[in-house]
Amino acid sequence: MTTPRKPHRPSVREPAALEVLGERSDPIAALHAAHETAAVLLHTGRAADDPAVTERLLGLGEEIGLSTMAELWSSRPARTLPGVLWRLYLLREWVESDPDGVAREYAAGIRFTEPNHAVAGVDPPGPQEVRRVADQILRGLFVGDFAVALERAAAFCHVVSSGRADITHGSRAVIQAGRLQKMADDLGASARLWRAGTLQ
Question: Which of 12, 19, 76, 172 has the CA that lies 20 to 30 A from 88?
């Protein structure tokens, strides 16, 4: 009898490296599952009013594995509820896996995007601070203003993208910065959709 393998995290964790997984055998069922699980997760977190539930939801990526989340949510468009949840969990995982690198790029990007820095709220821009803000952003989905959490995430990505473009050289870095910028734009647009009641 074989022992079931524990879910593992993918080796590539950056938001700039989002990949669409292979199509499931029933794409309609997969689409419904993605949106239903995202809605249930969000409703559960926002209705619980229990810090223990919130902490468990924050650690969901570690508990079930990002690969499981990816199977559910990563193929959905960025400006949908499952697309947003996937990006925010991936953002938090990326910051957790490389706080020094993220903090370095964030610090370099401040002078180009001062208003976004004020919204993101990373001060001073050190490794512990970027980790704290990534946690606050994800926590805000469940216990705060959902749109504000998305706006903070968007601002955070804008700053890091600008810093990466400034201090990292080569075409790969430019492409990654562009993808991070696109993620920021999508998160900002999703905040507006949430306020309009149309983010699904």
Answer: 172
